């Protein structure tokens, strides 16, 4: 059986065949082009980095990649691939502060080198030197692109290509060992699943240290030989409609993000009329949040259909770092699939059509793709679930990673079963070939024997009052005198006067009416108190820890008569 062509060789061939073809276009925070790099330039620059790495490291050593959204990151990443060094993409410092998760990753991977920008060298060295003594520090923007004569280190599909650290939504970050074979398998799944060819321009803003940003927005375009137009995450956060403007300007075929990205655009849809948007080229609008929200899809489509966005462009999908990136995906042009389910039955981990009681609309996350196996398994018995039962999503295929770096116990728990299936920790069901994700098993709230999915409770809370719609919400349980008790923490982001007691009452009433349970505590907190991962997932376990330590900063309305404490 012939060996697949790996990414380093794909780049080398593209650089030889089409050296002047544009690989990546970088935009500044106003949307202007700030840098362009061709396949030829990328190859030459990556060889220069690889040559310098090879003088200081041996194959298998780890190298931290600490960059903003810039061409130097991509050069450094391929330099690592060429040198056989395992790249470890990191979240760059924000406001001169290095995140705790970043420090944890540095301790875990014991890097031999740190690649960054000249601007960051000294402050990073001061912060990280104690954690990686003896590491070699390289500024990627100082490298010469002159011919070096360096020959890339030969690699096989079984060799680890890089370490993708998990976002830590339910636990400390773990280093997923993604092999060269994993990358090729998943890039081919994405190509076929998204219907890509070399004329399908991609637009992205997800951070490069996240699997979607790296594997979806950087490596997939190179794999198919197209151009990728890249914004910074901060540019999107400040100006969500700039994202849609870039899609329109470059005639992008593919772009997407987590559920909150589409909500952010809807919140600012009034400004779209001034932009002259044409979204008719957008054929794959992937939404990879899990679970997906039907109301988000409907509101976005209603807001932007006048600008050429079509229902068929929606591409719901599901994936995770342990499977490289993509697991299931829709059929291009078919749009989303919805499933009406009895809400009470879902709380009992069963699916039945509505019977006259509460109804929940599930959004499909696509179909099983070629060259993989996806099953729904009872996590307690290890037996396949009946078609009407919710169980753990388990995945097998060439895209499933090799395990966690230096963590045999976690590897055995997640990857090490005799059936060779990845235990995702996500709950879902398959109906007519479509995967419906209902939540994370570690996040499920069990009160008096009933299962509550936190995202459902959070959605009910956010819908309770207009002032709550833009804030982040976390639902979790804590021990109480009579068993587990429900707690809801809700950020208030809008600078409007409101009575905290009225907001708390509205949240209680909405959750009770929708789910038949009343929170034992509702916390109204200031902005940026509820932590999220880089992909927008709510870190509910972190919120629970913070609540038990009484560390949430109360929200203070601009002006209101406070008739009740913020904590009730």
List keywords for this structure.
568 residues, alpha/beta, 4-stranded mixed sheet, 26 strands, disordered C terminus
Low-pLDDT ranges: 560-567
Helix content: 25-40%
Report the total helices.
16
Task: Determine the mean pLDDT.
Answer: 91
Radius of gyration: 24 Å
| Content of β-strand | 15-25%
Distance between the termini: 65 Å
Query: What coarse outline follows from CA principal-axis ratios?
Result: globular
The beta-strand count equals: 26
Strand line-up across the major sheet: 11-12-13-14-17
The structural class is alpha/beta
What can be said about the biggest beta sheet?
5 strands, mixed
Task: Please provide a written account of the structure.
Helices cover 30% and strands 24% of the residues. The protein is built from 16 helices and 26 strands. Residues 560-567 have low confidence and may be disordered.
Write the layout of secondary structure elements.
Elements: H1 7-17, E1 22-27, E2 33-38, H2 39-56, E3 62-66, H3 71-83, E4 86-90, H4 100-109, E5 113-116, H5 121-128, E6 136-139, E7 160-165, E8 175-179, H6 180-194, E9 202-204, H7 211-224, E10 228-230, H8 233-238, H9 240-250, E11 254-257, H10 259-267, E12 284-287, H11 294-304, E13 314-319, E14 326-329, E15 338-342, H12 343-347, E16 359-363, E17 367-368, E18 372-377, E19 391-397, H13 408-414, E20 422-431, E21 434-440, E22 445-447, E23 450-452, H14 454-462, E24 473-480, E25 483-491, H15 500-515, E26 521-525, H16 540-548
Question: In a few lines, what is going on in this structure?
Answer:
With 568 residues, the protein is an alpha/beta fold.
């Amino acid at each position: 059986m012939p060996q697949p062509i790996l990414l380093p060789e794909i780049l080398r061939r593209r650089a030889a065949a089409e050296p002047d073809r544009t690989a990546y276009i970088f935009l500044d925070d106003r949307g202007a082009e700030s840098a362009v790099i061709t396949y030829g330039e990328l190859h030459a620059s990556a060889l220069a980095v690889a040559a310098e790495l090879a003088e200081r490291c041996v194959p298998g050593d780890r190298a931290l990649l600490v960059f903003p959204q810039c061409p130097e990151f991509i050069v450094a990443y391929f330099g690592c691939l060429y040198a056989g060094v395992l790249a470890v993409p990191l979240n760059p410092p924000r406001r001169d502060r290095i995140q705790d998760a970043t420090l944890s990753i540095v301790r875990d991977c014991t890097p031999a080198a740190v690649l960054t920008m000249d601007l960051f060298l000294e402050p990073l060295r001061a912060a990280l030197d104690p954690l990686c003594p003896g590491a070699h520090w390289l500024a990627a923007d100082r490298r010469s692109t002159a011919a070096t004569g360096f020959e890339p280190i030969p690699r096989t599909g079984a060799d680890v290509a890089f370490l993708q650290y998990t976002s830590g939504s339910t636990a400390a970050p773990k280093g997923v060992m993604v092999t060269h074979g994993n990358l090729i398998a998943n890039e081919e799944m994405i190509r076929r699943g998204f219907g890509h060819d070399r004329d399908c321009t991609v637009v992205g803003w997800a951070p490069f240290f996240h699997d979607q940003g790296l594997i979806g927005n950087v490596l997939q375009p190179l794999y198919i030989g197209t151009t990728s137009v890249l914004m910074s995450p901060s540019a999107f956060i400040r100006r969500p409609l700039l994202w849609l403007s870039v899609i329109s300007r470059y005639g992008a075929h593919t772009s997407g993000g987590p559920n909150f990205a589409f909500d952010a655009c809807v919140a600012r849809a009034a400004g779209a009329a001034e932009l002259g948007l044409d979204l008719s080229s957008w054929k794959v609008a992937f939404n990879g949040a899990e679970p997906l929200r039907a109301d988000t899809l409907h509101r976005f489509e209603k807001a932007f259909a006048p600008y050429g966005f079509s229902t068929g462009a929606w591409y719901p999908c599901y994936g995770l770092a342990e499977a490289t990136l993509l697991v299931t995906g829709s059929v291009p042009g078919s749009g989303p699939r919805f499933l009406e389910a009895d809400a009470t039955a879902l709380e009992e981990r069963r699916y039945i059509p509505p019977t006259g009681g509460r109804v929940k609309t599930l959004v499909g996350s696509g179909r099983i793709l070629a060259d993989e196996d996806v099953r729904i398994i009872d996590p307690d018995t290890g037996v396949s679930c009946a078609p009407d039962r919710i169980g753990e999503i388990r995945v097998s295929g060439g895209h499933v990673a090799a395990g966690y770096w230096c963590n045999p116990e976690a590897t055995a728990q997640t990857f090490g079963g005799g059936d060779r299936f990845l235990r995702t920790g996500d709950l879902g069901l398959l109906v007519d070939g479509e995967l419906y994700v209902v939540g994370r098993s570690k996040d499920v709230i069990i009160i008096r024997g009933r299962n509550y999915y936190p995202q459902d409770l959070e959605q009910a809370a956010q819908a309770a009052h207009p002032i709550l719609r833009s804030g982040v919400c976390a639902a979790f349980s804590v021990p109480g005198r009579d068993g587990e008790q429900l707690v809801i923490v809700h950020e208030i982001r809008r600078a409007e006067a409101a009575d905290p007691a009225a907001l708390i009452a509205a949240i209680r009433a909405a959750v009770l009416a929708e789910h038949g349970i009343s929170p034992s505590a509702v916390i109204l907190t200031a902005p940026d108190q509820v932590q999220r991962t880089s992909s927008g997932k709510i870190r509910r376990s972190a919120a629970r820890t913070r609540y038990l330590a009484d560390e949430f900063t109360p929200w203070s309305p601009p002006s209101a008569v406070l008739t009740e404490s913020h904590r009730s």
